[in-house]
């Protein structure tokens, strides 16, 4: 790691960790949605909405700190990119839950559970990795595994699309379910964007 003569603002590390912990909360709400009946989904959506608002607050706090800090722990554009990508994950997860409720989906297609399991694992790995930004230690396995999970998510998504277009569902239901599985896929992509940003930061700091 480069030697620095000037002190750095370290509160970013805690804020990134808090943002990632909130994403774990969101992923668990997604998992809870799978086993919930229709009446319970509205309450889960409310909790997810609250988690998404907390994520927005965390992102705004990072941006505020970025704008008011003379010296940052790593490049400003990377701080912005990391915060934005973490925020995107929460946005996509909240959107997926909201769509399930708004579209009054009675039963999610087989394979959505696998999508969500991938997101839960990616959330856990991301939360474990954020504190390591302080030292840049033990991060290589993190971004390799998240990239592997994103590839797995791609495969699950393609199989889901094939299932949706198999003729089992009517056209309107296909449109509803496709939008939900597409948003979950975007969440997986956002996890990969976070991992790629962390890799970029680590390379610059090495």
Automatic annotation (TrEMBL):
SUPFAM superfamilies tied to this protein: PhoU-like
Family the UniProt entry places it in: Belongs to the UPF0111 family.
A Pfam family hit: PhoU_div
Domain of life: Bacteria
Classification via PANTHER family: UPF0111 PROTEIN YKAA (PTHR37298)
Protein name: Phosphate transport regulator
InterPro entries: PhoU-like_sf, Put_Phosphate_transp_reg, UPF0111_domain
């Amino acid at each position: 790691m480069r030697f620095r003569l000037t002190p750095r603002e370290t509160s970013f590390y805690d804020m990134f960790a808090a943002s990632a912990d909130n994403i774990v909360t969101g992923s668990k709400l997604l998992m809870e949605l799978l086993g919930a009946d229709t009446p319970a989904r509205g309450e889960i959506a409310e909790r997810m909405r609250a988690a998404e608002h907390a994520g927005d607050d965390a992102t705004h706090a990072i941006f505020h700190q970025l704008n008011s800090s003379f010296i940052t722990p790593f490049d400003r554009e990377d701080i912005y990119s990391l915060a934005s990508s973490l925020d995107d994950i929460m946005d996509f997860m909240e959107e997926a839950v909201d769509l399930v409720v708004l579209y009054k989906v009675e039963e999610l297609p087989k394979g959505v559970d696998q999508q969500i399991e991938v997101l839960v694992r990616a959330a856990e790995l991301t939360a474990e990795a954020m504190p390591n930004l302080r030292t840049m230690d033990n991060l290589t396995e993190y971004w390799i595994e998240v990239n592997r999970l994103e590839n797995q998510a791609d495969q699950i998504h393609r199989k889901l699309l094939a299932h949706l277009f198999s003729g089992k569902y009517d056209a309107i239901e296909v449109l509803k379910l496709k939008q939900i599985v597409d948003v979950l896929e975007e969440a997986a992509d956002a996890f990969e964007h976070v991992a790629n940003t962390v890799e970029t930061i680590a390379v610059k700091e090495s």
